[in-house]
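[step 3/7] inverse_fold.run input=structure_tokens len=368
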């Protein structure tokens, strides 16, 4: 059986040492399965890496582990885990993977304890979040832990669009903090939100209700528009998009568009915004055209069990309550009105503060 060069060298070294010197030499300690040992790279080949372990002999890193040592070169110091203390050829079977992972977990534990910010580059994505690797350990960055800038806001439940937006982050550097790490279960959870929270707190302190801000639209959903305001998430509720009735927020903005809005509330981690409050309220100007007792014409826009809503001008919608449709408790608005038909009504009351106009059904009253 041929003995590798590194093994011959180590054996020659042993022959020159006395027994006392061997016992005193740290390198002569028995190799224990599972231990992490140090050595110098003898050679790096396509299918194996040989490591000089000094008096302990020569270590072999097999083909399946070579990828973990792709940056190694001859003469480099390296740490490896013992998989087999002595193979048939006398060499020690080593694993770079285990050593890399152990070192990686030590680094992760240190970063978690210190609360340090680290940088990762996602290598894959699924609908739940981003897959990352840090110091040889695979981890997960959930969607819920992404910043306002990266959170994939989409309308409805379009899972394909969510995945498409997450895939766009693959390969891009993201600054995160370690949220949870468990060496035993190989669990590593990261958070971008935690990495930026200190900066967000400072930005929040500089904002106040009434401020006008600019931001980039990050998502358009059924109930409103999400806006990234310098890293802070803001929401323009559907009721705050325009003074006119809004049926679909997507008719007003697109993702990536820059919008201007007014801060109407500051929550713990989000801004409530209004786009319509930066515009003149047409209701106030149009309501000046009506007074109590006026007869007006309007279009039926909605029919409910408690009455009907009537559009009496472009910006003014009024209510004719069921009690104003006739006598008795069995009056059914759906039997009296049809959507989009025009009828004549009488103005009963105008509440400017509450932005309400009450109507009576003039035709019904006339027949009484």
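[step 3/7] decode complete -> sequence:
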């Amino acid at each position: 059986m041929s003995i590798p060069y590194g093994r011959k060298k180590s054996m020659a070294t042993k022959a020159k040492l006395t027994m006392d010197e061997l016992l005193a030499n740290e390198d002569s300690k028995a190799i224990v399965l599972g231990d992490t040992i140090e050595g110098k790279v003898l050679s790096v080949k396509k299918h194996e890496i040989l490591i000089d372990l000094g008096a302990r002999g020569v270590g072999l890193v097999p083909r399946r582990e070579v990828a973990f040592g792709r940056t190694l070169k001859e003469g480099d110091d390296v740490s490896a885990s013992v998989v087999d203390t002595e193979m048939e050829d006398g060499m020690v079977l080593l694993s770079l993977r285990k050593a890399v992972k152990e070192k990686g977990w030590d680094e992760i534990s240190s970063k978690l304890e210190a609360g340090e910010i680290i940088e990762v580059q996602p290598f894959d994505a699924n609908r739940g979040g981003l897959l990352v690797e840090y110091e040889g350990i695979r981890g997960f960055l959930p969607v819920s832990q992404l910043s306002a800038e990266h959170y994939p806001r989409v309308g409805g439940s379009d899972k394909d669009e969510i995945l498409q937006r997450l895939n766009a982050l693959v390969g891009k550097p993201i600054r995160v903090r370690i949220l949870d790490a468990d060496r035993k279960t190989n669990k590593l959870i990261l958070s971008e939100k935690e990495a930026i929270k200190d900066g967000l707190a400072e930005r929040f302190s500089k904002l106040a209700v009434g401020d006008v801000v600019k931001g980039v639209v990050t998502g358009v959903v059924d109930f409103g528009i999400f806006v990234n305001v310098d890293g802070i998430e803001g929401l323009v509720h559907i009721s705050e998009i325009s003074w006119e009735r809004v049926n679909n927020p997507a008719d007003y903005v697109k993702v990536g568009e820059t919008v201007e809005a007014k801060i109407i509330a500051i929550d713990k981690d989000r801004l409530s915004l209004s786009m319509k409050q930066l515009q003149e309220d047409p209701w106030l100007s149009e309501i000046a055209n009506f007074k109590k007792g006026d007869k007006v014409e309007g279009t039926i826009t909605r029919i409910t069990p408690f009455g009907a809503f009537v559009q009496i001008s472009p910006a003014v919608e009024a209510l004719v309550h069921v009690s104003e449709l006739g006598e008795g408790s069995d009056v059914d608005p759906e039997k009296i009105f049809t959507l989009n038909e025009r009828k004549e009504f009488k103005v009963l009351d105008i509440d400017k503060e509450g932005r309400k106009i009450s109507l009576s059904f003039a035709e019904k009253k006339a027949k009484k």
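[step 4/7] annotate
The chain has eight helices and 21 strands.
The longest helix spans residues 96-114.
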